[in-house]
């Protein structure tokens, strides 16, 4: 038995009533946009200008639009949280007394984009620093101040780490390796890989 | 009838081939300055100074007072300093050249040209060609300028179970804590896709390095 994703609260009832009256075509467009931006945490789905226009095109006022958008976002977020199967989603949306055309629209947009959104949400992390760039350079040292006529290979790696904290930007970690040092590093990466292999 | 006369003047030096001496084209100032005082130096003091120089070259600490202790009525600390600097410069120049490129006989020839006493030539040659040489070479390479290296790599593989937005995640992430030789510690997360990229690149560079070591022996001339 699938988890119950929605309960019919008073505000949901109110939202459903408003949603049912919306034009189908425009409803689909609004849904699409919400779906696209579902994985973005702190950003508005529609800009203030866009919300003003939406009030016009949908024929509802400010607070009503607010309720409609919040409810639709909530419905989709819950579907994502539970990784809902389309059939289950369809059934539970119908139980909320949404009309058939609207239910179909929501299920359709979920079926098309659901996988993508889940992928993006899975990769979301709380850790502030992420490895983003990997660059390297292979050199051959031919001399230094105390020794001439050498042939000493060395590699330099530059790891770009993005810090999500404001104003810190990208940190560049520069490391140097001789052949044996690089081999040691490689062995450690192999150990990590074994762990990852063990998970699948 | 015309006759051309070409006058050839010798330099007054030995007829040795025109190879460059181990110290370069010109005799370094420090070496030039020390030749005269060196000729009067007692063998014991010479050996003691040499010991200090070799200690310094091997990367260990040498205190000025150790040189000052050798002062006598014949040799002031100034003169000792001149000799120390000259010998140090001489040895540094000789040690720069790889062993394969400098023959002992030619080294002694160059010392002879510099008017270094025969006695001292043997001692100097034993520093350059003797069994301390491998330690000296090792110290030289270790002291080269370098970017930071990874001193310690700690890592962790986590699997996210659930988050505030997803009931089931089951996505692995790699966490790395890199302690570098400059003391900095960098902690960051590596998404699995980036980890594969890192591993691929490291393997690639390793292969390139191996290829380089195989073929560079042929290309670079001595």
UniProtKB/TrEMBL annotation, chain B:
Residues 149-213 form the COMM domain. It holds the Pfam family COMM_domain. GO terms for cellular component: nucleus. PROSITE patterns: COMM. InterPro entries: COMM, COMMD5. Belongs to the COMM domain-containing protein 5 family. This is COMM domain-containing protein 5. The lineage of its organism: Eukaryota, Metazoa, Spiralia, Lophotrochozoa, Mollusca.
């Amino acid at each position: 038995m699938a988890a119950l994703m929605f309960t019919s609260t008073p505000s949901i009832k109110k939202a459903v009533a408003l949603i049912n009256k919306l034009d189908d075509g425009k409803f689909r467009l609004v849904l699409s946009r919400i779906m696209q931006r579902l994985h973005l945490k702190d950003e508005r789905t529609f800009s203030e200008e866009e919300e003003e226009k939406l009030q016009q095109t949908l024929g509802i006022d400010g607070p009503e639009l607010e309720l409609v958008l919040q409810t639709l976002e909530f419905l989709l977020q819950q579907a994502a949280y539970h990784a809902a199967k389309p059939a289950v989603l369809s059934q539970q949306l119908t139980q909320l007394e949404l009309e058939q055309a609207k239910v179909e629209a929501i299920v359709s947009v979920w079926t098309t984009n659901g996988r993508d959104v889940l992928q993006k949400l899975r990769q979301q992390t709380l850790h502030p620093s992420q490895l983003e760039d990997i660059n390297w350079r292979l050199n051959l040292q031919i001399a230094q101040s105390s020794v001439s006529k050498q042939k000493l290979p060395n590699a330099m790696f530059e790891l770009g780490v993005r810090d999500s904290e404001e104003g810190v930007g990208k940190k560049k970690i520069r490391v140097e390796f001789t052949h044996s040092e690089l081999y040691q590093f490689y062995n450690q990466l192999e150990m990590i890989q074994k762990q990852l292999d063990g998970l699948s | 009838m015309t006759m051309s006369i070409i006058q050839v003047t010798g330099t007054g030096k030995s007829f040795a081939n025109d190879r460059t001496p181990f110290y370069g084209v010109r005799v370094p100032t420090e070496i030039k300055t020390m030749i005269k005082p060196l000729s009067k130096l007692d063998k014991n003091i010479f050996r003691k100074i040499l010991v200090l120089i070799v200690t310094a070259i091997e990367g260990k600490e040498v205190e000025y007072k150790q040189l000052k202790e050798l002062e006598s009525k014949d040799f002031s600390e100034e003169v000792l300093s001149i000799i120390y600097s000259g010998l140090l410069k001489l040895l540094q120049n000789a040690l720069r050249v790889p062993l394969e490129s400098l023959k002992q006989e030619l080294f002694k020839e160059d010392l002879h040209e510099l008017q270094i006493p025969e006695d001292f030539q043997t001692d100097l040659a034993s520093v350059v060609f003797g069994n301390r040489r491998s330690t000296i070479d090792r110290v030289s390479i270790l002291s080269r300028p370098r970017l930071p290296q990874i001193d310690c790599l700690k890592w962790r593989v986590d699997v996210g179970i659930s988050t505030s937005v997803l009931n089931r995640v089951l996505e692995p992430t790699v966490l790395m804590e890199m302690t570098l030789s400059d003391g900095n510690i960098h902690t960051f997360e590596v998404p699995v896709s980036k980890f594969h990229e890192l591993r691929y690149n490291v393997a690639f560079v390793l292969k390139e390095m191996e290829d380089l070591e195989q073929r560079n022996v042929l290309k670079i001339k001595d």
